[in-house]
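RESIDUES AND SHAPES:
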Amino acid sequence: MIVLLVLIMILTDLLLVKWLKRSFLEPVRNLNVAMGKIRDGNLEYVLPTGEDGEIGQMYQNYEDMRLRLKESADEKLENDKHDRELISNIAHDLKTPITSVKGYAEGLLDGVANTPEKQEKYVRTIYNKACDMNNLINELTLYSKIDNNKIPYNFQKINVHDYFGDCVDEIGMDLESRGIQLNYSNLVAQDTIIIADPEQLKRVINNIISNSVKYMDKAHGTIDVRILDEQDSIRVEIEDNGRGIAQRDLPNIFDRFFRADSSRNSAQGGSGIGLSIVKKIIEDHGGYIWATSREGVGTCMHFVLRKYRESA
């Protein structure tokens, strides 16, 4: 009888140890291994989630933590890749106008431009290339503020008729020097008011028109700016007769770093952040933006902003 009791106790102890090992020690050991994988930077190691009770909850917590860490790591890798691409694009796009400026300046110094007409052409080209570099640097500066969500806004009441008229006058002088015709029509009432930051809204217009100029492939380039009335809103259309955008690319053109022409041999270049800046500014104004385009025909950018109404 005593022997039987001892055997039963030994068997019970063995079963209890086995149960403890299976229910607690092995899961804890598995969890320890998994945490070691994370410590070593391996975020692909997956724990089975079939356990019940507290152990199952610990496994699930580990898996949730692993997925969040993996998402953060993947996002950091993607951002690092984009930053490298941006630096490469900026370096390329600065080198191109700098090379042109250097070449035309040498032409002036060496007397190659030996007529007033030629000299004026050389100086005008140097000026345009300097403007391109300035726009690129401004774009990069604003990009850093967007990345930190720190775009400075100074919202105020703006008369649509006066504001866009002044913008077009300023832009028209630059386009004329590039041989591009600018057409303008404003169909809203002269007392129409919007709430906007005049500087950032001008950046929107400049970025869109800069893109139109960059991808203009016609001997006689034209850009049409139209301000349309839509009851509670105004709609701004900026249309060009340039090369157009492929339909497959249209949904992506406002994505940061997207470039329809990714070839580094492209004469157009581009950082790939200009239209993402445009979209961010318009959305921060409570508006929205979209594009329509036909390859070989041209592109039209549309954005809508709400009118300001005095409270009754």
In short: Residues 156-306 form a domain with the Heat Shock Protein 90 fold (CATH 3.30.565.10). The first helix runs from residue 2 to 39. The chain has three domains: 2-75, 90-147, 156-306. The longest strand covers residues 221-230.
